[in-house]
Design goal:
Strand order of the largest sheet: 1-2-3
Helix content: 40-55%
Length: 111
Amino acid sequence: MAKFSGGGNMQMSQMLKQAKKMQEQMAQMQAELQERTLEASAGGGAVTAVVSGKQELISLTIQPEVVDPDDIEMLQDLIVAAVNEALRQMQEQVADGMAKITGGINIPGLS
């Protein structure tokens, strides 16, 4: 078992304080993200998806003129595109928030 000199204990104490502060900041950011929503659209606004910070679909709006019974595949593609874009943007916001807290340090399981 390694022994720490007096200075080593001080450094370890400082590191633990920083880790605790980082943990508190991450918890606060996660709580804020839970309340956040993000909207993205596809097809020039034909389909709009709203997702939460929990990365759940909250609402989906489809403009009536885009509903064509003879072309359901296009509508499905627009829905998938809008939802995926909203989720991608939310994931980007989460990653940006984490990077600000961790100072860009890559911590496995946090990104």
